[in-house]
Amino acid sequence: MGRQRHWPSAKQMACVVTLPLLSVATSTWALEAAISGVSGQVSDNIGAYLETIDAEQYTDTRLEGEIRQRTQEAMRVYGYYEPDVTVDLNATPISISIEPGPQVTIEVLDITLNGDANDDPPFQEALDDFPLKEGDPLRHAPWDNLRSQFAGLAIERGYFDWGFSDRRMEVRPYLESARLYMTFDSGPRYQFGETLITGSHIQPERLREMQTFETGDPYLAESLARYNQRLAETGWFSSVSVRPRLETAQELTIAPPSGGSPWWNEATASQPQRPRLSSAALASALSIHSHNDTRLPIDINVEPADRHQFEVGVGFATDVGPRLRFGWQQPWINRFGHSLNHDLYVSAPEQRFTGVYNIPLEDPLRDSYRLQYGVRNVDDSDTQSLEGTVEVARRWEFDNRWVQTLYFRTTYEDFTQGGQADEVWLFYPGIQWSRTRTRPQRFPLWGDRQQLSIEYSDRAWGSDARFTRLTGDTEWIRMIGNDNRFSARLSIGAIETDDFDKLPPSLRFFAGGDRSVRGYSYESLSPRNPEGRLRGGQQMLTSTLEYQRRVTGDWWGATFIDAGDAFDNWGPNDLKTGAGVGVRWISPVGPIRFDIAHPFDVDDAFRVHFSIGPEF
Q1: pLDDT digits over 271-309, tens only?
Q2: Burial 76-103 (b: 16+ CB within 10 A, else e)
Q3: For residues 284 and 265, what is the distance between their CA atoms, to the nearest angstrom?
Q4: In 10 A of CB 210, how many CB atoms?
Q5: How do beta strands 191-198 and 295-304 pair?
Q6: Does the pTM of the predicted model rise above 0.90?
C-alpha cells in the first residue's frame, strides 16, 4: 500500500508563505510623531507600523496604549523585546521616546534539510546565503524569508510532499537569547510524465517537438511556463493551457514572469527572475492526490486562433507624407502550421503589396522555409520604378538570438533613374545575419540592432548584371541614469560591379531623410548625372549620434548630429552633415519625433522632420 499523503489546503499555504512587511521605507504618516532613542531601520519600521493610526478614532488613553503596543511590535522583529516606550501626546508633534534595552542574540541556530531537496543546489544556495549565524542579533525577516524560500522552491521544483516537521523560534528576553529550529522535509521530487494534447488543429507531433522537457525529467515550473510561452508565440492558438493532470477541479496554470499573486512573488523574491506559477497553480499543486508513482502526466489544452486576422495602421513622416498599411494574417492554413501573411503599404512616393508563405520546421519559432513575393511601385523625384520580386528563403534563429537567412531572389524591374530607362531581370542568392534586442518594446531604454547582408548576381545564370552587394547596419541605445538616453547608428553599403547602369534603383544607394541624414530631403544625396539628376551611388555611409534628455514624464528633448552620403568611389571626398534639436513624445501609439535640422553645406537652411513609429 502506498504511503498516505496529507496535502495542505491553498488557504493554509497562503498563511505559511504570506509574511508581513518587516521593514518599510518611511512615508507620510497619518499620525505625526517624533521618534527618539532609535534610528535607521528600527525607526523606519516603527513609522511604518504607526502610519495607519487615525488619532481621531481613539481616546487619549487608548491612543497612548496603541502607540506603545505598535512600537513594541515594530522593534521586536529587530530583536528588541523589552523596550521602554514613553509617549507624550501633548507635544507637537507627538513625542515617542524609546529606551531600546538589550537586543536578543541567537544562541542556537539549527536548520536541517531532509528529503531529495538536500541534494538540490537551489536549496543549498538558500542555506549558504542565509545571513544569520549564532551570536548575531536576532532579526525576524531573514528567518521568515528562508521559510518562504523553501516553500517557493518546493512548489517551483516539484516537491509536492513538502512540509516543516519542526519550525520554532524560542525567545528568552530575560536571558537576551533566542533558539531557532527549522527542519524542512521536502519528500521526493516529482518528474514529468507523458503529455496529452487536446483541442489542437495542428499535428500533435509538432507540438511535442516544441517541448522544453522530456518524460522523466525532474519537474520544474519554469519548463512548463516556457513551453506554454512557446506554444503561444506560434500564433496558432487563441488560448493555451499547460498543466499537470490533477484529481481536482482546480487547475494548475502558468503565470507570466510579471504576473502572479503578491504572496507568490514574496515567496520567490530571492530567486532569479523566471516564469512563475500563479496562486491558483499552487492551490492545485497542493491538492494533488496520487499513488507512489511520482511522475505527473502533463495535459495541454489549446484552442485554435482565428484563421483570418486583419490590421490597419496609419502614420506620417516628412519623408513620405501620410502612409497607410493594411495587414491580413492567416496564422495557420493547415494542420502542419503553415501560415500566410499579406501586407499592403500606400504612401505618395511608394506603394507595395507583399506576401509571405511560411513553412515551419522542427522548431517552428526558430527554423522555417519562407516564400516571399511582392510588387512595388515608386515615383519619387528622379526615380520611377515598377518592381516584381519572388524570394525563397531558409531561416535559422540561434540561442544567442542571431537570425541567419539564406535566400534566393529573382527580381524584374522596369525603371527610369535620372532620365535613363531600362528593364532588367536579376537572379541572385544572398545571406543575411541580424539581431534585434530591445527593452521595453515601445520606447527602448536599452537595445541594439545589427544586420549584415551579402548578395551576388552573375550573367552566368541568366541575370542581366553581375554584381556583389554588401549592406550593414548597427544601432545602439543606452541609458545613463533614468533621464539621459543616448543612441548611435552606423550604416554602410557597397556594390562591386561593371554593370552599374543595369542595376535598378532598388539596389543603388541613396542617403538623406528622417532615418538617414537629417537636414536633407528623402534620398536626395547621391551622385548626379550630367543633367544634374540623381542616379544613385555604388557606396553609402551614414552615421548618427543623438542625446536625449527627459524633460518630464513621457516628454524628451533631443540634440543630434548626422553625417553621410552616397558616392561612387571607395571613400567620399566629404560627407554631408546635419545637426539640430528635437522633441520626443512617447504616445500611446508609439514614439512621435519632431526635429529641426540644419544642413552644414547650405547657409541659413533648416528642414523639419516629423515621424511616428518605433526606432527599431
Answers
A1: 444 444 454 455 455 555 444 678 999 999 999 999 999
A2: bbbbbbbbebebeeeeeebebebebeeb
A3: 17
A4: 18
A5: parallel
A6: no
